[in-house]
Write a sequence for this structure.
């Protein structure tokens, strides 16, 4: 990609959304399912945590859909955090953006003093090892009051015994990516290069490389692992509220 002119944050976020939609076939309906649950379950005024928020796609959608909601968005990528801060500033004091590394056992420290009615995450927790995931779910159960909800949207890959479903999902992913890139969506690498080329972003991109250098892809944690881990962590009701092939929105009530 040879874009040289600086892009406004909102445009960079739109390009991120198009890029992510190449990897997540029905990303908008998946977001909508999460918003529907929030609207049905919570009062007009609520607080939410966007876990591994990236540049703020989900936080932004929540703040737009619910004018009285407050969202705390956390991530560990300094470039994405900068962009999230720039985009979410439109929502004033209803949005805050904080840095934390979910791999650290003290990752909740920056959240001290905050309470949440909902924890949300999209396309992110697959970065965690199954043991880190159980720990993070357990920490979240400790942060949430009874009745609060967790919604985790992610690809939860099919494992042994589900070969046909696994290959249908992989074929569908390839087809969606081919179509999206043919119609002009950035690849993840293209988008990151574009973002790193924006004024002031190069040092943040370099720091991101350093932070994530030793973090290889994790073994897949299938749906049944998430459901069991959430129950073990202390959530009382767990299930799914949306599914397309191997892409889900997992629901849990504290
Ligand atoms: C594919 S992006 C998804 C971002 C956003 N939730 C979305 O749906 O557009 C995955 C995100 O997980 C974040 N992430 C990965 N490992 C993390 C960790 N250990 N702590 C915090 N964030 C992490 C990455 O920095 C990235 O922003």
């Amino acid at each position: 990609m040879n874009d040289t002119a600086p892009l406004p944050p909102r445009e960079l976020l739109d390009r991120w959304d198009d890029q992510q939609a190449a990897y997540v076939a029905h990303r908008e309906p998946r977001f909508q399912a999460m918003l529907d649950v929030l609207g049905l379950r919570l009062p007009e005024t609520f607080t939410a945590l966007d876990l591994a928020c990236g540049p703020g796609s989900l936080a932004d959608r929540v703040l737009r859909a619910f004018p009285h909601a407050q969202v705390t968005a956390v991530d560990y990528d300094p470039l994405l955090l900068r962009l999230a801060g720039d985009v979410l500033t439109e929502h004033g004091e209803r949005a805050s953006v904080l840095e934390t590394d979910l791999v650290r056992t003290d990752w909740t420290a920056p959240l001290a003093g905050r309470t949440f009615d909902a924890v949300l995450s999209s396309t992110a927790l697959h970065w965690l090892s199954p043991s880190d995931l159980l720990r993070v779910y357990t920490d979240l159960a400790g942060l949430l009051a009874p009745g609060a909800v967790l919604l985790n949207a992610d690809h939860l890959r099919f494992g042994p015994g589900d070969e046909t479903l696994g290959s249908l999902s992989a074929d569908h992913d390839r087809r969606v990516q081919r179509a999206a890139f043919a119609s002009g969506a950035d690849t993840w690498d293209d988008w990151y290069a574009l973002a790193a080329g924006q004024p002031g972003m190069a040092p943040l991109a370099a720091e991101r490389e350093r932070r994530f250098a030793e973090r290889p892809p994790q073994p897949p944690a299938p749906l049944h692992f998430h459901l069991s881990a959430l129950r073990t962590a202390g959530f009382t009701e767990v299930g799914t509220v949306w599914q397309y092939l191997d892409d889900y929105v997992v629901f849990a009530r504290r």
The domain at 9-253 is CATH 3.40.50.150 (Rossmann fold). The beta strands are 47-51, 70-75, 95-99, 118-122, 149-155, 237-244, 247-253.
